[in-house]
């Protein structure tokens, strides 16, 4: 589920999260026990609890539904639960796997992600150390394969042009490397929205580029900041 939460007081202007969508699943087997990891993008505690409740219903016959999640650009909300496993052998290792996941060399900034590991007991006791490794590797392995995006707080600027030229201008802006937000259509004009770094120099350069592309017939108007998903290059 996509994150629509705003974080106006965040110290950070960017972080990494799971790509919007239905979530991601990955399964491993350890000594006949099945560990099914489900990763979901969540915006708050309620969303994380909803994901967990849904998986409890889906996998109602499983012995354990352990979870961990981290929220916010500053990762200031962190929760975990062992769900009946020996204390400290499931939830904490899962949370550490989320927190330690490097999204770039030396950078660990994954957030707004919930991980639920459903365990079907295979009849062989794993011991405390074995459980820690299994739950940690379940989440780490899923994160290695899951689609991630960069979430950045950007200044949304608008350019209002005639319908006839909007398509060409949008293509030119995309080709120039600009991140485009949702387009709005009015009776006589199209409003193109650009997501730009929130600094005066970047805004000035973009305004000059828009003026050059439209021969001075359109101007760039800065608006509010929003959190925008940007592909990881």
UniProtKB/TrEMBL annotation:
Residues 31-143 form the Impact N-terminal domain. Transmembrane segments: none annotated. GO terms for cellular component: cytoplasm. It comes from the Bacteria. This is Putative YigZ family protein. GO terms for biological process: regulation of translational initiation. PANTHER family: IMPACT FAMILY MEMBER YIGZ, IMPACT-RELATED. InterPro entries: Impact, Impact_N, Impact_N_sf, Ribosomal_Su5_D2-typ_SF. Belongs to the IMPACT family.
């Amino acid at each position: 589920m996509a994150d629509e939460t705003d974080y106006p007081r965040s110290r950070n202007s960017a972080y990494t999260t799971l790509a919007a969508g239905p979530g991601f699943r990955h399964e491993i087997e350890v000594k006949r026990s099945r560990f099914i990891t489900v990763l979901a993008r969540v915006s708050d505690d309620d969303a994380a609890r909803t994901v967990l409740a849904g998986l409890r219903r889906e996998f109602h016959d499983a012995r354990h539904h352990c979870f961990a999640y981290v929220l916010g650009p500053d990762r200031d909300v962190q929760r975990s639960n062992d769900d009946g496993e020996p204390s400290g052998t499931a939830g904490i290792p899962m949370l550490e796997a989320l927190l330690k996941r490097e999204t770039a060399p030396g950078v660990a900034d994954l957030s707004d992600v919930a991980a639920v590991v459903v365990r079907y007991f295979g009849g062989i006791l794993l011991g405390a150390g074995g459980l820690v490794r299994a739950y940690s590797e379940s989440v780490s392995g899923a994160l290695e394969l899951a689609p991630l995006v960069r979430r950045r707080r950007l200044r949304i600027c608008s350019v209002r042009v005639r319908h006839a030229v909007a398509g060409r201008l949008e293509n030119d802006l995309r080709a120039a490397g600009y991140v485009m937000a949702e387009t709005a259509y009015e009776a006589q004009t199209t409003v193109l929205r650009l997501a730009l770094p929130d600094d005066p120099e970047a805004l000035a350069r973009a305004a000059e580029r828009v003026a050059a592309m439209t021969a001075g017939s359109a101007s760039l108007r800065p608006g509010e900041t929003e959190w925008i998903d940007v592909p990881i290059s």
